[in-house]
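anyone seen this seq b4? input:
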Amino acid sequence: MCSRDCCSGQTGKPGNSCADKKKGKGLSDEEKIVPTPQSLLYPYEVIQEIADFIVKGSGMRPRIGIICGSGLGSLADIIQDAKVFEYEKIPNFPVSTVEGHAGKLVVGNLEGACVMAMQGRFHFYEGYPLAKCSMPVRVMKLCGVEYLFATNAAGGINPKYMVGDIMLMHDHVNMLGFAGNSPLQGPNDPRFGPRFPALVNSYNKDLINKALEIGKAMGIESNMHVGVYSCLGGPTYETIAELKALRLMGVDAVGMSTVHEVITARHCDMKVFAFSLITNKCSIEYDDKRDQEANHEEVMAVAKNRQKACCELVSRLIREIHAMPPSGTQAAKTGV
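predicted toks r here
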């Protein structure tokens, strides 16, 4: 706390008064903290450097990017002719710290298509700003990716949802955005996208409909839903009051990821398909039973049991996309 002697200049030491400190006088370079806008944490040139490293190291330009949610890293394990990059060995790349996130980037072929998959994402609750959490999406874009597949483990708020169900996301409620936190904060670089991107049709309707057809062919249509997802900051699971509020807002499932990645993907004009694996039912009634409390071990166990169905759904949808002609931009990037 400031004292009377401090601001009246009685300390006798220049640079020690509150007024001097506010002006930066008497402070070392380490003590002068200048906030950096999120969008400047990874400028275009740094993203391009990371993308060039991956393209050169893999010898491939992927068309589809996949972000594997908690316990769903097996999606990357089915990639053939895979080139694996550990996050810590990729220049300027963060490191995932959460169990169930291997921390590897895998580039290879799946159902005839060239894909890149993240085995482990970055979360706001790990201490990373949203721009850093979403940075790999921009790397994917500069590698040539047109489609983003984002998966997550989520708690089911909709009472019709059962553990093990798959919810195809057709919209989201951005709770972090309500608090003024966005991966697009700071100066906008038009090389990525516009200053004010629209998010009305963030989730590709054609891909959702195709996934529903695939689910029916797989015989899992009774375990599939189309719903609204919301991302909270974590790492705590939600209170009863918070879950009730989210349900009143029309939210069907809640987690701690994906939304800021989708925002970043849409900002740079990528087509998005996303789904939540419902790993626990959220209780919206007050109860003293501890077995109603969500826990990470349960999330991992359910994801492991349902990984085969999730992998098949993604594989079949990628097969459909591979049959579609690439866009002009991607066609121009076929050379490595």
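Residues 42-331 form a domain with the Rossmann fold fold (CATH 3.40.50.1580). The chain is about 35% helix and 20% strand. kinda curious what u guys think
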